[in-house]
Each structure stands twice: as structure tokens, then as C-alpha cells.
Design a protein that fits this description.
Number of domains: 4
CATH architecture of the largest domain: Alpha/alpha barrel
Low-confidence stretches: 2-17
Number of strands: 26
Strand content: 5-15%
Distance between the termini: 93 Å
Oligomer: single chain
Shape: globular
Helix content: 40-55%
Radius of gyration: 26 Å
Length: 661
């Protein structure tokens, strides 16, 4: 009897714990797709079969693109995709496709570009696309509420209306109008190419710059690392002090603001407020990777330890939350404990009480909480505060570090956000390059960078085939995209210039040629081997792969003294010059490539022994288009693409010559 009772009890638990719904996403590797595997929506992964199903059943396609650590993706799931009524509308009238944008960046880039052409609104995630069975865009949007709200038609009205209009043939008109809009908005007008590249770009950024809160654009406010890098180079090349102030002020505001984790280090993805106070709390690997080099440069230029501390804290936090066996995970979620930022925010009372228990006086509590902007009213939602450095306080409290330790301790009792543990080749390569650059100010990062680069090659590069991502315990099978090649080559070249391991330059040269074969066809660059998505210039969330790849090709050509290949690269850039300059405030990395060709690359050559012994001096050279290469020479040689124009045994004299040029 007891056994029977136990069996019935366990069976009851099983029945009640079993998910009510399971769809075709259940077999996916992607954490994002698995998050939706038990929605009542009959989701299917992106495939040719999904489109064939739509054509056979004469249904529209509901394409939803997002990623696992996206706050608004979670909101839309809770409001709509877990809603039985909306799920029925989708299941009856649509073929619903879910896409992890980090697994399929080419699809995301393609539809984000269409969104930017059709809509005045900003791009972002979740991205919602209604397609005809043949794949033509009927309508496209980001987050859509379940009910009408924020001036947006809700899912409950939108979905039945579009399904009806499609069957009434009205969608043909919509599709035709969309095509017309895209042609008109995609048309590139003639611009004055006689004005310098630097001038065209700087004027655009002057208009976008916020002189009150610093940074660019209104909201949401992204770090825009590629823009800051280009502006910093304008200062180094042309002594543009206004450009330097833009960079310094913006990086200061970020490092002191709420977009930076003041307790444990590392940057959140973006700020919802122009004053950098309120972020969306997800931490992306690429955000850390692209900001670290900027703070390294600022430290080198100013000598202020504050910037070095940002570098050290960001790397330390990245190693803690992202690192695994030498490689790096993709991201951490914004949400935890059922709310946005749950792990990162504080109530005044809990901090005050913890500081009292730590022996702080009333005065010390007041000055430290004021310093971190943790007040009784709160600076976030529901009386919570997100720590940031109070801009009105110049003097750092004596017990600032002890306060930070208490804030860190309080987090131990909280649930840490979800970590997306897939490892993406391009993002890992970005981080590896950042570590190589950070080794200029702290030698210990060189070992980390070298070990990570070797681990990445071992995991993602097999039999001359590069792969896009790895998710344990599965073997990587998804072929790499242009972004993976572009950023891996960049990391290899950084590795060569910091270690002078010939194998890095050889491999970078080899896979550069492979990338051209795979992604360039009929005078067009593509993001994927199937040539589904054209490569666009948009250095917003992170640097555009094509912009980065131009620099790879220029560097490979110069380091190999391959003038034929350099001429080919110049041809690529010449054919794209008008498009780059027309969208120059969106394409700083590609514009920098044009400027590199215009200004001149300098290659400093000498023996490996000479270069390594002079590394500290070489690292301080401010000319941004300087490369170094091992040569069988006892002296230091300075060369451009046509000749070697100076040599000397004394590195100080060589550096002086570079500064003169």
C-alpha cells in the first residue's frame, strides 16, 4: 500500500510540474529559443521548411528576433507570447518563427536595415516582422504591446487585421509601398567629396554631441565606442582638442554614471536616460571589449589612475562572470528576482542598516550614500537606487572602498542574473584584442590575451573552417560570418604586434583571403556565405564587421608589404567612398579606413629583440596608424607603402621622426 501511495504521489507531482505547452524550439541549443520552448505559441526555428509551411497553408509569417538577455524581449514574452488568446491568433493565422539574433546575426542585420529604411523609429529588440508567405515584408516594428498602448496598435488588434488584409489582397499594396519606401530611403545623394573626411565626420558629430550630459543622441544613449575611437584619433592626428573633450567628457560621464557598475565593475549595455543614470542592466561581452581600449588610451594620454581603475575593474568583472576555460560567455541578463536590475539595485534602508552594522557613523553613512547617490527617494523605480558617483561631490569619502565592499556583500544574498553561456567567435576576438591593448598598461593581461587567443583557435578553427559559436557540450557546427572573420583577424594582428609570433600574421593573412572569397561577390559585401544579407555600415551596438574588415585588409597588406593587395583594398574603399561618407556619422570605422589610406600607414621594423626591448616606448607612440613588424635588421626602420624613409639605432630618434611626420 505504501509503495502504491508513493507511486501515486510521485505521479501527481510529475503531472502538475509538467509544462502545459512544448513547441518545436525544445530541441534548440540557443538559450533564447529554449526560453520560448514552452510558450503556447507554436514557434518553429528559422528554416526553409517554415516558409514552405506558410506557403502551403497560405498563412502570414510572424518573425520574432531577440536574444536571451534582452529586457524588452522578456516583457513581450510575458505580455503576448505567454498569453493564450494571442497565442491562438498566431497559431490559427500565422507561422511563427523565433530567431536568436546572436546565432543568426545576418538575419537580424538584414531586417534591422529594412526597419531603418521603413520606419523613423530607432532599431532594437525584440524585432517583430510580419512577412508574406514568400518572405516579403508587410510590416516591421520593435516591441509591440498586447493591448493598444504608447500610441502603438496592440497585438490583439494588429494580428487579426493584417491576416484579414492579406487574404483580402490588400497586403500586395502594402508590400509595393514598402518596396517604394525602401528604394527612396536607400538612395544615396551626391556629397561634396572635396571636403576632408575628418571635417565631414567631425561636423556631423558636433551636431549630435550633448554638451550638458555628454555622449551622443538623446535616448537611449549607447556608448558608441567606434565613434569615440575615431574622435580620439582626430585629436591625435590633427590636435583637434574639441574632439578630445568630447571623448574625455563622455568616457568620464559613463565611468561615473549609472551605466557603469560602481560596485563590481563593467558596463551595462546602454542608458535609458541622457544623463547616463538609468541603464538597462544587461552586461554584454562586446560592450566591455570595445570600451576597455578607450580607457587604456585615456590613461596613457592623461596618466590619471581613475581610467586605469576602470580598465582593471572591467577586466576583473569580465573574467568573473564571462570567463570559462580561456573563452568568454556572451552576456548576463538585465533582470533577476522578477524585476529589471534586481541584483544591482538597492533600497536606502538596507544599505543604511548594513553600514551601521559595519560600524559607520551617521556622518559617514550620509556622506557615502550621498557619494553613491543612494537616497531615500531612490533614483530608479519603486524607491530603489542604482549606484552612481554623485557629480556634485568632488572629494572622495574616506570610507568609499569600505562602502563599496558593503554594497558588494549585500549582493551575495541576491540572485545573480541569468548568464547566456554561448561563446561567440567575434565577441571573444574583441575581448582578446582588448586584453592585448590593456597589456600596454599592465603586463599581466598579455598572458590572458595569448591564452584566450589560443583557446579560441583550438575551439573554433578546425581544418581551415572557422565557426561562429560554441555552446557546451555541443561541438561547433555553425559556419562563421563576416563578423567572426573580421574580428578574429583583428585579434590575430593585435596578437602579432604584442608577441611577434609569426604564426598569427600568417593565419591572419590566410583567412583574410578566405573571407574575401566567401563574402565578396559581384562588387557587394555580404555578412554570410549564402549572400542573404548585405553588409551595412552601422557602428552603433558594436563596430560594423565590414568597417573592421577594411582595417584588417590594410594592416595585412602593409605588414606583408603586398602592394598588389593594398591596391585591391584601395579599390574596395574607392568604390564605397560615397556611401561611407553619406552615412559617415553611422560608419566611423569605415571612414577611419578611408582616412588611413589618405594619411599613410607607417611600419616600424626591426629585430624581434629590438622591438620587444623597446615595447614600453613604442606603446606610448600616439600616431594611430603605426604598425610594427619583425625584420632581420639591427637598426629601427621606418617605412611607408612605397619606401623606407628613415633608420636609426636609437628608438628615441625614431619616435621623434614619427612625431615630425
Amino acid at each position: 500500500m505504501m509503495k502504491l501511495f508513493l507511486s501515486l504521489f510521485l505521479w501527481t507531482i510529475f503531472l502538475f510540474s509538467k509544462e502545459l505547452h512544448t513547441n518545436a524550439l525544445i530541441g534548440s541549443e540557443s538559450p533564447y529559443l529554449l526560453q520560448h520552448a514552452h510558450n503556447p505559441v507554436n514557434w518553429v526555428p528559422f528554416s526553409d521548411e517554415a516558409f514552405k509551411k506558410a506557403q502551403k497553408e497560405k498563412k502570414l509569417i510572424f518573425l520574432s528576433i531577440g536574444y536571451s538577455t534582452c529586457h524588452w524581449c522578456h516583457v513581450m514574452e510575458e505580455e503576448s507570447f505567454e498569453n493564450e488568446r494571442i497565442a491562438k491568433i498566431l497559431n490559427d493565422g500565422y507561422v511563427s518563427i523565433k530567431v536568436d539574433k546572436e546565432e543568426m546575426p545576418q538575419l537580424d542585420a538584414h531586417y534591422q536595415h529594412i526597419h531603418s529604411l521603413l520606419e523613423k523609429g530607432r532599431n532594437g529588440w525584440p524585432l517583430t516582422v510580419i512577412l508574406s508567405p514568400k518572405g516579403e515584408v508587410i510590416t516591421i516594428a520593435t516591441y509591440i504591446p498586447a493591448e493598444d498602448a504608447y500610441g502603438i496598435e496592440g497585438m490583439k488588434k494588429l494580428l487579426p487585421r493584417l491576416s484579414k488584409s492579406y487574404h483580402d489582397n490588400e497586403s500586395r499594396v502594402i508590400i509595393a509601398l514598402n518596396k517604394k519606401k525602401m528604394v527612396e530611403k536607400g538612395r544615396i545623394e551626391k556629397i561634396d567629396t572635396n571636403e576632408s573626411i575628418a571635417s565631414i565626420y567631425f561636423k556631423k558629430m558636433q551636431k549630435r554631441y550633448d554638451k550638458i550630459y555628454y555622449g551622443f543622441d538623446k535616448r537611449p544613449r549607447f556608448p558608441l565606442a567606434a565613434h569615440l575611437n575615431f574622435l580620439l584619433e582626430l585629436y591625435l592626428l590633427e590636435n583637434n582638442k574639441e574632439a578630445f573633450e568630447m571623448v574625455k567628457n563622455s568616457l568620464d560621464a559613463m565611468a561615473r554614471g549609472g551605466i557603469y557598475d560602481q560596485v563590481e565593475g563593467g558596463f551595462y549595455r546602454y542608458s535609458t536616460h541622457p544623463d547616463w543614470s538609468v541603464p538597462h542592466f544587461e552586461k554584454m561581452l562586446y560592450t566591455q571589449a570595445e570600451l576597455i581600449p578607450l580607457y587604456v588610451k585615456l590613461y596613457q594620454l592623461t596618466g590619471k589612475n581613475f581610467y586605469k581603475s576602470v580598465v582593471d575593474e572591467t577586466i576583473k568583472e569580465s573574467l568573473k562572470i564571462f570567463s570559462n576555460k580561456g573563452l568568454f560567455y556572451a552576456a548576463t541578463d538585465a533582470d533577476s528576482e522578477g524585476r529589471e536590475g534586481g541584483y544591482f539595485i538597492y533600497h536606502y534602508d538596507e544599505v543604511e542598516d548594513a553600514l551601521k552594522k559595519s560600524g559607520f557613523s551617521e556622518k559617514e553613512i550620509e556622506e557615502n550614500l550621498d557619494y553613491f547617490d543612494i537616497g531615500e527617494i531612490g533614483n530608479f523605480e519603486d524607491g530603489f537606487s542604482n549606484p552612481q558617483l554623485n557629480t556634485g561631490i568632488e572629494k572622495v569619502p574616506e570610507k568609499m572602498l569600505e562602502t563599496k565592499a558593503v554594497l558588494k556583500y549585500l549582493r551575495k544574498s541576491k540572485q545573480f542574473p541569468f548568464i547566456d553561456k554561448k561563446m561567440i567567435t567575434s565577441w571573444n576576438a574583441m575581448m582578446i584584442k582588448a586584453l592585448f591593448i590593456a597589456s600596454k598598461i599592465e603586463n599581466k593581461y598579455l598572458v590572458l590575451a595569448t591564452n584566450a587567443l589560443e583557446a579560441l583557435l583550438e575551439k573554433m578553427y578546425h581544418d581551415r573552417q572557422l565557426y561562429h559559436k560554441y555552446f557546451s557540450p555541443h561541438k561547433p557546427t555553425q559556419k562563421a560570418f563576416l563578423e567572426d572573420y573580421a574580428f578574429l583577424i583583428d585579434a590575430l594582428l593585435a596578437g602579432y604586434e604584442h608577441t611577434y609570433a609569426k604564426s598569427y600574421l600568417t593565419l591572419a593573412t590566410d583567412i583574410t583571403e578566405v573571407a574575401i572569397e566567401k563574402f565578396y561577390d559581384n562588387k557587394q559585401w555580404y555578412l554570410d556565405e549564402k549572400h542573404f544579407a548585405l553588409a551595412q555600415y552601422n557602428d552603433k551596438y558594436y563596430t560594423s564587421p565590414l568597417g573592421r574588415f577594411y582595417h584588417d585588409m590594410i594592416t595585412v597588406a602593409n605588414l606583408n608589404y603586398d602592394l598588389k593587395f593594398l591596391a585591391k583594398v584601395k579599390g574596395f574603399l574607392k568604390s564605397e567612398k560615397e556611401r561611407i561618407l553619406f552615412f559617415v556619422d553611422k560608419s566611423p570605422e569605415a571612414a577611419r579606413a578611408l582616412l588611413r589610406i589618405e594619411k599613410e600607414n607607417i611600419v616600424l621594423k626591426s629585430s624581434k629583440e629590438n622591438l620587444m626591448n623597446s615595447k614600453a616606448d613604442i606603446d606610448k607612440i600616439s600616431y594611430p596608424f603605426l604598425l610594427t613588424k619583425v625584420e632581420d635588421a639591427k637598426v629601427f626602420l621606418l617605412c611607408n607603402e612605397s619606401t623606407c624613409f628613415f633608420y636609426d639605432k636609437n628608438i628615441t630618434k625614431v619616435i621623434k621622426k614619427i612625431e615630425e611626420k
